[in-house]
Structures are given as C-alpha cells and as structure tokens.
C-alpha cells in the first residue's frame, strides 16, 4: 500500500503452507531459503531418533496403540503424525544425523501440547554436549531457529523443561537445514 523506502517494495520470497486435500505432504513446507546464496535448501536427512518417553496407550483418546505417537513420527516428513511424550517434565528427543554434518537452521513444528521452556544441545559423540539455543517463551507454533553461525554435530537433543499444557511434549516435525 505504501513504500517504506524511496526504492519501492521488495521481498525475497512469498509462501503459503498447508496440507493438500489428498493428504500428501506439501514438500514446500519443509524447505528453507538460503538468502545469502539465493538457494532453496532441503532438510538434512535424520537417520534415527530416540526419546525419553512415548505417550502411553492409556492416554490415547482413540484407544489405539501407542505407536501413534512414536518418536520416528517427528522425523517422517508427515504433518499428520506426531511424537508425544509422557505427561511429565522434563522430556527429551534425540536425533542422529548419521555422521557429523554442518547446519545453521532448526525448524520445529509443535502440536498444541508444546514446551513453554526448552533447550537444544548438540554433540559429535553423544557424551560432550553444547547448548546452542534455549527459550522460556515457547508458543506452540512453528519455531524457525536461525543459528548465529553454522554448527557441526552428529546429534541434536531437544529437551522440554516445562510443558505449556497438562499433556506431554508433542511435535509434528523436526527439521534441520
């Protein structure tokens, strides 16, 4: 409607996200733009995932098996499946990239049962951990965490320190770029 500068309006990218009617993943949702290079990046493949807990069957509102909330759901590129933990603080999710890789962005797609306080750590060997991010203001939306500098690590651990709801920690997807 109105220019902010004398040069006009300019944007890098405009995107709309959602799930198509056929239920297949909208691949554009899991991409990230490297504005310095002008390239669209694909997420790094996560080889394996582990968690401190999985929501037990007795809490499943559809009375299905707890496999509905298994940790692999957080890395399956499907926004219709999720990992959900026990209803206790703290809980963690550990991702294995399979080898030491460099990345500079993490994207977490939270479900309503999210962390209000959480931290992210990285490690090359699963023994020595380095904090790379923390927040005390988790809002349960999509967290696009741009790191100040590229990080090299094999393992990434998300630790939910305080739940925002009475439920456990729950997320639809975890992407690394």
Radius of gyration: 17 Å
Low-confidence stretches: 22-28
The CATH class, by name, is Mainly Beta
Anisotropy-based shape:
globular
Kindly name the structural category: mainly beta
Features:
177 residues, Jelly Rolls, seven-stranded antiparallel beta sheet, two-stranded antiparallel ribbon, 9 strands
How does this model look, in words?
With 177 residues, the protein is mainly beta. The protein has one domain: Galactose-binding domain-like (Jelly Rolls, Sandwich), CATH 2.60.120. The chain is 0% helix and 43% strand. It has no helices and nine strands. It has strands at 32-34, 39-41, 48-51, 83-84, 91-110, 115-123, 130-135, 142-163, 170-176. Strands 3, 4, 5, 6, 7, 8 and 9 form a seven-stranded antiparallel β-sheet that branches. The protein is globular. The model is unreliable at 22-28 (pLDDT under 50).
Short description, anyone?
The chain is mostly beta strands and 177 residues long.
What is the element layout, followed by pairings?
Elements: E1 32-34, E2 39-41, E3 48-51, E4 83-84, E5 91-110, E6 115-123, E7 130-135, E8 142-163, E9 170-176
Antiparallel strand pairs: 1-2, 3-5, 4-9, 5-8, 5-9, 6-7, 6-8
């Amino acid at each position: 409607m109105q220019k902010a500068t004398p040069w006009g309006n300019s944007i890098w990218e405009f995107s709309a996200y959602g799930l198509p009617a056929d239920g297949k993943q909208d691949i554009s949702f899991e991409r990230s733009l490297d504005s310095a290079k002008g390239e669209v990046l694909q997420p790094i493949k996560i080889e394996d995932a582990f968690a401190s807990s999985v929501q037990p069957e007795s809490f499943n509102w559809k009375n299905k098996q707890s496999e509905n909330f298994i940790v692999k759901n957080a890395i399956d590129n499907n926004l219709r499946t999720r990992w959900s933990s026990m209803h206790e603080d703290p809980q963690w999710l550990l991702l294995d990239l399979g080898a030491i890789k460099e990345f500079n962005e993490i994207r977490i797609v939270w479900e309503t049962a999210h962390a209000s306080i959480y931290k992210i750590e990285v490690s090359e060997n699963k023994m020595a951990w380095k904090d790379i991010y923390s927040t005390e203001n988790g809002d349960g939306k999509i967290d696009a965490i741009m790191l100040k500098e590229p990080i090299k690590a094999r393992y990434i651990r998300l630790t939910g320190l305080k739940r925002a709801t009475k439920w456990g920690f729950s997320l639809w997807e975890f992407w690394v770029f």
